[in-house]
Automatic annotation (TrEMBL):
The keyword Lipid metabolism applies. The lineage of its organism: Eukaryota, Metazoa, Ecdysozoa, Arthropoda, Crustacea. GO terms for biological process: lipid catabolic process. The active site is at S231, D254, H310. Transmembrane segments: none annotated. This is 1-alkyl-2-acetylglycerophosphocholine esterase. The gene is PLA2G7.
Amino acid sequence: MASSFFQKYRNHTPLPQGPYVVGCTDIMVGKTKEGSFMRLYYPSKVTDLKSQVDKWTPWYLGDEYTRGLAAFIAPSIPSLFSMLFNWQMRGVLTPAVWEAAMADKKFPVVVFSHGLSANRSIYGTVCSELASHGFVVAAVEHRDSSACASFTLNDKGEKEFLLFRPLQPNEKEYDLRNQQIKVRVEESIRALNVLEKLEKGEITNELPSQFDLQQLKGRLDLSQPIMSGHSFGGGTTICTLAKDKRFKVGVALDPWMFPIKGEVETICKDVTQPLICISTEAFQADVNLKAMGKLNAETTTFVTIKGTVHQNQCDTPFLVGPIGRVFAGASSPLDPVTAMEINNRLMINFICKYLGEKTQTCNTYLTYLESQRDKTVYGLYGKGKSMLGWDAGYHAI
């Protein structure tokens, strides 16, 4: 599979493996930064994903997003990077049916927080996998200038873009990231507030849409909300769990602890919910592991996927060729399909365990994880290599 995965997925990210065909829509509540903006992945009524390929969700979000990503990944050659990225990504699809009707059942909810310089689209593989197993996933697009781009709407309904904010000369990294993570926590909490209002049928979408939000009325199980995220979003997950006890379970993918280095003991002490930290091998330097070690050992599960790099927990490896993966820090010893499958099944099994859902799928995934045990290490572990790509400032703790 490792040798053929890029050819197989070059025009779309991997197909979700759960029993539901995934639907997708964007929701904006409030036109300003004080509102909420998310991509919603959900179980749909569609029964045949491949027959709906003409309605799959475009992965590419526009030139503004590319320019913001270029400002972070390739600041010395932003124009060249933008041109190549646009050429490569314009036709890529996420295998989720755009604005499909929602399935007639009540589903648990997940709020997902993206990493530094990412956006609401780039974790489509993780989010659609969760949705295919019966979760409604609100992938927040943060508007604290940590996303590659985002936008608000003016009084005429026109987009006003918010681009990624690079670190300024002589500016302290910690001051900026600590300020941003506080905004991110509030945005994550607002996303749960929106889900609660969607459950009551009280939300109007500011974006043009054919998707009737009334479909969500009475179909969101808010008894045990899950908070999740990757990298900066993993740190956001930990902080959100500490602040808002409505969230009952946490999943932090490669949590980046640098933005809370001055508050790590207090914040980690306040995380009392079950939490799993799923780490990639190359990302976890000693200083990050030490900070993660402040989390409650009785309620926190630590696991590292061997042979992986930071980008294995997002869509990047499935979007670019071998040279592009090296350039973006997404080239890993473990093939990306296997890395993503292990990551997603760890997530799903942990969530099902604490939601009390013992499904046949979860039992099958547990068997799979046992078969891949040589590729995982339980407990705090990492080789501490310098990380490539996003969140490169983590070493500055």
